[in-house]
Protein backbone atom coordinates (compact mmCIF):
# COMPACT_ATOMS: atom_id res chain seq x y z
CA UNK A 1 0.00 0.00 0.00
CA UNK A 2 1.40 3.37 -0.94
CA UNK A 3 2.18 5.85 1.82
CA UNK A 4 1.46 9.56 1.79
CA UNK A 5 4.08 12.29 1.92
CA UNK A 6 3.99 16.05 1.82
CA UNK A 7 5.05 16.19 -1.82
CA UNK A 8 3.81 13.10 -3.60
CA UNK A 9 0.13 12.15 -3.31
CA UNK A 10 -0.37 8.38 -3.12
CA UNK A 11 -3.74 8.55 -4.85
CA UNK A 12 -2.97 6.90 -8.20
CA UNK A 13 -1.02 4.01 -6.67
CA UNK A 14 -3.69 3.31 -4.06
CA UNK A 15 -6.49 3.34 -6.62
CA UNK A 16 -4.47 1.01 -8.87
CA UNK A 17 -4.02 -1.41 -5.94
CA UNK A 18 -7.74 -1.22 -5.18
CA UNK A 19 -8.67 -1.90 -8.80
CA UNK A 20 -6.36 -4.92 -8.89
CA UNK A 21 -7.95 -6.34 -5.73
CA UNK A 22 -11.43 -5.86 -7.14
CA UNK A 23 -10.55 -7.47 -10.48
CA UNK A 24 -9.39 -10.61 -8.68
CA UNK A 25 -12.30 -10.94 -6.27
CA UNK A 26 -15.33 -8.86 -7.28
CA UNK A 27 -15.25 -7.83 -10.96
CA UNK A 28 -18.96 -6.95 -10.77
CA UNK A 29 -17.89 -3.90 -8.76
CA UNK A 30 -16.19 -2.46 -11.83
CA UNK A 31 -15.90 -0.08 -13.53
CA UNK A 32 -14.37 2.38 -11.11
CA UNK A 33 -15.44 5.22 -13.36
CA UNK A 34 -15.38 7.96 -10.68
CA UNK A 35 -19.16 8.28 -10.75
CA UNK A 36 -21.18 8.64 -7.56
CA UNK A 37 -23.01 5.45 -8.54
CA UNK A 38 -19.71 3.58 -8.39
CA UNK A 39 -19.42 4.44 -4.69
CA UNK A 40 -22.49 2.31 -3.98
CA UNK A 41 -20.90 -0.66 -5.74
CA UNK A 42 -17.61 -0.07 -3.97
CA UNK A 43 -19.34 0.05 -0.59
CA UNK A 44 -20.45 -3.57 -0.98
CA UNK A 45 -16.88 -4.58 -1.76
CA UNK A 46 -15.54 -2.63 1.21
CA UNK A 47 -17.97 -4.20 3.69
CA UNK A 48 -17.08 -7.65 2.38
CA UNK A 49 -13.37 -6.98 2.96
CA UNK A 50 -13.27 -5.08 6.24
CA UNK A 51 -10.47 -7.31 7.52
CA UNK A 52 -8.27 -6.47 4.53
CA UNK A 53 -7.63 -2.91 5.75
CA UNK A 54 -8.45 -1.25 2.44
CA UNK A 55 -9.56 2.03 4.02
CA UNK A 56 -6.73 4.08 2.54
CA UNK A 57 -7.21 2.64 -0.95
CA UNK A 58 -10.98 3.09 -0.91
CA UNK A 59 -10.58 6.55 0.62
CA UNK A 60 -8.30 7.60 -2.23
CA UNK A 61 -10.90 6.51 -4.76
CA UNK A 62 -13.65 8.30 -2.84
CA UNK A 63 -11.66 11.53 -2.83
CA UNK A 64 -10.71 11.17 -6.48
CA UNK A 65 -14.39 10.71 -7.34
CA UNK A 66 -15.18 14.04 -5.67
CA UNK A 67 -12.26 15.70 -7.46
CA UNK A 68 -13.41 14.35 -10.82
CA UNK A 69 -16.98 15.56 -10.35
CA UNK A 70 -16.26 19.00 -8.90
CA UNK A 71 -12.92 20.13 -10.27
CA UNK A 72 -11.50 20.34 -6.76
CA UNK A 73 -7.93 19.32 -5.94
CA UNK A 74 -5.93 17.23 -3.51
CA UNK A 75 -4.04 18.85 -0.64
CA UNK A 76 -1.41 17.26 1.64
CA UNK A 77 -2.16 16.59 5.33
CA UNK A 78 -1.88 19.68 7.48
CA UNK A 79 -3.63 18.99 10.80
CA UNK A 80 -4.08 16.11 13.22
CA UNK A 81 -7.65 15.66 11.93
CA UNK A 82 -6.20 14.72 8.54
CA UNK A 83 -4.75 11.55 10.12
CA UNK A 84 -1.73 11.83 7.86
CA UNK A 85 -3.89 11.56 4.76
CA UNK A 86 -4.40 13.92 1.85
CA UNK A 87 -7.66 15.85 1.68
CA UNK A 88 -9.71 17.53 -1.04
CA UNK A 89 -10.00 21.33 -1.14
CA UNK A 90 -11.12 24.11 -3.52
CA UNK A 91 -14.64 22.69 -3.70
CA UNK A 92 -17.19 24.76 -5.66
CA UNK A 93 -19.21 27.21 -3.52
CA UNK A 94 -17.52 26.03 -0.30
CA UNK A 95 -13.90 27.11 -0.76
CA UNK A 96 -13.12 26.83 2.97
CA UNK A 97 -14.28 23.23 3.19
CA UNK A 98 -11.88 20.31 3.38
CA UNK A 99 -13.12 16.86 2.48
CA UNK A 100 -11.31 14.20 4.48
CA UNK A 101 -11.56 10.71 2.97
CA UNK A 102 -9.92 9.24 6.07
CA UNK A 103 -12.76 10.51 8.24
CA UNK A 104 -15.35 9.20 5.78
CA UNK A 105 -13.79 5.76 5.90
CA UNK A 106 -13.63 5.81 9.70
CA UNK A 107 -17.32 6.69 9.97
CA UNK A 108 -18.43 4.19 7.33
CA UNK A 109 -16.41 1.41 8.96
CA UNK A 110 -17.77 2.29 12.41
CA UNK A 111 -21.42 2.54 11.36
CA UNK A 112 -21.41 -0.21 8.72
CA UNK A 113 -24.60 1.34 7.33
CA UNK A 114 -25.30 1.30 3.61
CA UNK A 115 -25.49 4.59 1.68
CA UNK A 116 -22.74 6.11 3.81
CA UNK A 117 -19.89 6.04 1.31
CA UNK A 118 -21.77 7.85 -1.41
CA UNK A 119 -23.87 10.13 0.80
CA UNK A 120 -20.89 11.33 2.84
CA UNK A 121 -19.07 12.20 -0.39
CA UNK A 122 -21.80 13.53 -2.63
CA UNK A 123 -22.89 16.12 -0.05
CA UNK A 124 -19.67 18.07 -0.70
CA UNK A 125 -20.70 18.60 -4.32
CA UNK A 126 -22.95 21.60 -3.72
CA UNK A 127 -23.83 22.30 -7.38
CA UNK A 128 -24.90 18.66 -7.70
CA UNK A 129 -26.97 18.89 -4.53
CA UNK A 130 -28.60 22.11 -5.70
CA UNK A 131 -29.59 20.48 -8.96
CA UNK A 132 -31.03 17.45 -7.14
CA UNK A 133 -33.13 19.69 -4.89
CA UNK A 134 -34.37 21.75 -7.83
CA UNK A 135 -35.44 18.55 -9.58
CA UNK A 136 -37.39 17.42 -6.51
CA UNK A 137 -39.19 20.74 -6.27
CA UNK A 138 -39.97 20.82 -9.99
CA UNK A 139 -41.44 17.31 -9.82
CA UNK A 140 -43.17 17.71 -6.46
CA UNK A 141 -46.48 16.05 -7.33
CA UNK A 142 -44.87 13.13 -9.12
CA UNK A 143 -42.46 12.54 -6.23
CA UNK A 144 -45.26 12.53 -3.66
CA UNK A 145 -47.32 10.14 -5.75
CA UNK A 146 -44.25 7.98 -6.05
CA UNK A 147 -43.92 8.04 -2.27
CA UNK A 148 -47.49 6.80 -1.96
CA UNK A 149 -46.59 3.84 -4.20
CA UNK A 150 -43.44 3.22 -2.15
CA UNK A 151 -45.44 3.06 1.07
CA UNK A 152 -47.90 0.57 -0.37
CA UNK A 153 -45.03 -1.60 -1.59
CA UNK A 154 -43.25 -1.53 1.77
CA UNK A 155 -46.06 -1.71 4.32
CA UNK A 156 -49.17 -2.46 2.29
CA UNK A 157 -50.93 0.85 2.82
CA UNK A 158 -50.70 4.59 2.33
CA UNK A 159 -52.59 7.31 4.21
CA UNK A 160 -55.49 9.01 2.49
CA UNK A 161 -53.63 12.30 2.65
CA UNK A 162 -49.88 12.72 2.74
CA UNK A 163 -49.80 15.39 5.44
CA UNK A 164 -48.28 15.84 8.87
CA UNK A 165 -51.05 13.97 10.66
CA UNK A 166 -50.47 11.06 12.99
CA UNK A 167 -51.54 8.50 10.39
CA UNK A 168 -49.09 9.76 7.80
CA UNK A 169 -46.22 10.00 10.25
CA UNK A 170 -46.83 6.50 11.60
CA UNK A 171 -46.84 4.97 8.12
CA UNK A 172 -43.68 6.85 7.14
CA UNK A 173 -41.87 5.56 10.20
CA UNK A 174 -43.09 2.03 9.57
CA UNK A 175 -41.84 2.19 5.97
CA UNK A 176 -38.43 3.51 6.98
CA UNK A 177 -38.04 0.72 9.53
CA UNK A 178 -39.03 -1.79 6.88
CA UNK A 179 -36.32 -0.52 4.54
CA UNK A 180 -33.74 -1.40 7.17
CA UNK A 181 -35.36 -4.69 8.14
CA UNK A 182 -35.40 -6.05 4.59
CA UNK A 183 -31.97 -4.66 3.69
CA UNK A 184 -33.57 -2.82 0.79
CA UNK A 185 -31.47 -2.22 -2.33
CA UNK A 186 -29.63 1.08 -2.20
CA UNK A 187 -31.59 2.59 -5.07
CA UNK A 188 -34.89 1.90 -3.32
CA UNK A 189 -33.65 3.00 0.09
CA UNK A 190 -32.24 6.27 -1.22
CA UNK A 191 -35.35 7.01 -3.28
CA UNK A 192 -37.77 6.43 -0.40
CA UNK A 193 -35.68 8.34 2.12
CA UNK A 194 -35.33 11.29 -0.23
CA UNK A 195 -39.08 11.39 -0.80
CA UNK A 196 -39.77 11.20 2.93
CA UNK A 197 -37.33 14.06 3.50
CA UNK A 198 -39.20 16.07 0.89
CA UNK A 199 -42.60 15.36 2.45
CA UNK A 200 -41.47 16.21 5.98
CA UNK A 201 -39.95 19.47 4.81
CA UNK A 202 -43.19 20.23 3.00
CA UNK A 203 -45.10 19.64 6.26
CA UNK A 204 -42.89 22.13 8.09
CA UNK A 205 -43.35 24.74 5.38
CA UNK A 206 -47.12 24.37 5.45
CA UNK A 207 -47.06 24.84 9.22
CA UNK A 208 -44.63 27.74 9.63
CA UNK A 209 -43.52 28.86 6.17
CA UNK A 210 -39.97 28.94 4.93
CA UNK A 211 -38.41 27.43 1.84
CA UNK A 212 -36.04 24.72 0.66
CA UNK A 213 -32.29 25.28 0.68
CA UNK A 214 -29.11 23.25 0.55
CA UNK A 215 -26.91 23.77 3.59
CA UNK A 216 -23.73 25.40 2.32
CA UNK A 217 -22.00 26.17 5.63
CA UNK A 218 -18.71 24.34 5.30
CA UNK A 219 -18.33 23.71 9.04
CA UNK A 220 -21.95 22.68 9.61
CA UNK A 221 -22.81 19.01 10.22
CA UNK A 222 -25.70 19.47 7.76
CA UNK A 223 -23.42 20.48 4.88
CA UNK A 224 -25.03 19.42 1.61
CA UNK A 225 -28.28 18.33 3.25
CA UNK A 226 -31.68 19.55 2.07
CA UNK A 227 -33.10 21.98 4.64
CA UNK A 228 -36.67 23.20 5.08
CA UNK A 229 -36.95 26.37 7.16
CA UNK A 230 -33.35 25.65 8.18
CA UNK A 231 -34.14 22.10 9.36
CA UNK A 232 -32.64 18.99 7.76
CA UNK A 233 -35.18 16.11 7.92
CA UNK A 234 -32.39 13.67 7.12
CA UNK A 235 -31.21 13.89 10.72
CA UNK A 236 -34.28 12.18 12.14
CA UNK A 237 -34.63 9.76 9.23
CA UNK A 238 -31.17 8.25 9.64
CA UNK A 239 -32.00 7.42 13.27
CA UNK A 240 -35.03 5.30 12.43
CA UNK A 241 -34.68 1.53 12.44
CA UNK A 242 -36.43 -1.64 13.61
CA UNK A 243 -35.05 -1.40 17.13
CA UNK A 244 -35.40 2.34 17.64
CA UNK A 245 -38.14 3.86 19.84
CA UNK A 246 -41.44 4.72 18.11
CA UNK A 247 -42.72 8.18 17.19
CA UNK A 248 -39.31 9.72 16.44
CA UNK A 249 -40.69 11.59 13.42
CA UNK A 250 -43.77 12.79 15.31
CA UNK A 251 -41.65 14.09 18.19
CA UNK A 252 -39.12 15.76 15.92
CA UNK A 253 -41.76 17.47 13.77
CA UNK A 254 -43.55 18.86 16.83
CA UNK A 255 -40.29 20.19 18.25
CA UNK A 256 -39.13 21.78 15.00
CA UNK A 257 -42.45 23.48 14.34
CA UNK A 258 -42.65 24.79 17.89
CA UNK A 259 -39.07 26.05 18.07
CA UNK A 260 -39.08 27.70 14.65
CA UNK A 261 -42.60 29.10 14.49
CA UNK A 262 -41.49 32.42 15.96
CA UNK A 263 -38.26 32.77 14.00
Parts with pLDDT < 50 across at least 5 consecutive residues: 1-5
Query: What's the mean pLDDT score?
Result: 93
What would you call the structural class?
mainly alpha
Largest sheet: 2 strands, antiparallel
**According to CATH, what is the class of the largest domain?**
Mainly Alpha
**Helix-strand string:** HHHEEHHHHHHEEHH
Q: Going across the biggest sheet, name each strand in turn.
A: 1-2
The tally of domains stands at 2
Calculate Rg over CA atoms.
20 Å
The CATH topology assignment of the largest domain is Four Helix Bundle (Hemerythrin (Met), subunit A)
Helix content: 55-70%
- Number of separate strands: 4
Distance between the termini: 52 Å
Q: Assess the beta-strand content as a share of residues.
A: under 5%
- Architecture of the largest domain, according to CATH? Up-down Bundle
Q: Count the DSSP helices.
A: 11
Question: What labels would you give this structure?
Answer:
single chain, 263 residues, mainly alpha, Four Helix Bundle (Hemerythrin (Met), subunit A), 2 domains, two-stranded antiparallel ribbon, 4 strands, globular, disordered N terminus
Structure commentary:
With 263 residues, the chain is mainly alpha-helical. It folds into two domains: 11-124, no CATH class; 130-260, Four Helix Bundle (Hemerythrin (Met), subunit A). Helix 2 runs antiparallel to helix 3 (55-70), helix 3 (55-70) packs across helix 4 (101-111) and helix 9 packs parallel to helix 11 (248-260). The chain has helices at residues 11-25, 36-48, 55-70, 101-111, 116-122, 126-138, 140-155, 166-181, 186-208, 234-237, 248-260; strands at residues 73-75, 87-89, 212-214, 226-228.
Amino acid sequence: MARSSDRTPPIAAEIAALTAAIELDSPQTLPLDKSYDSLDRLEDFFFAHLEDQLDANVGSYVGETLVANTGARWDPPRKADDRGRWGVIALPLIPKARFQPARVMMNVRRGRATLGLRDRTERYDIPHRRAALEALIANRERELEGLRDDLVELVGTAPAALDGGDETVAVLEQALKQLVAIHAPREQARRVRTRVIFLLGDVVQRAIGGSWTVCEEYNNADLGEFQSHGWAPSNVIRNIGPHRPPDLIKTELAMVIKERSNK
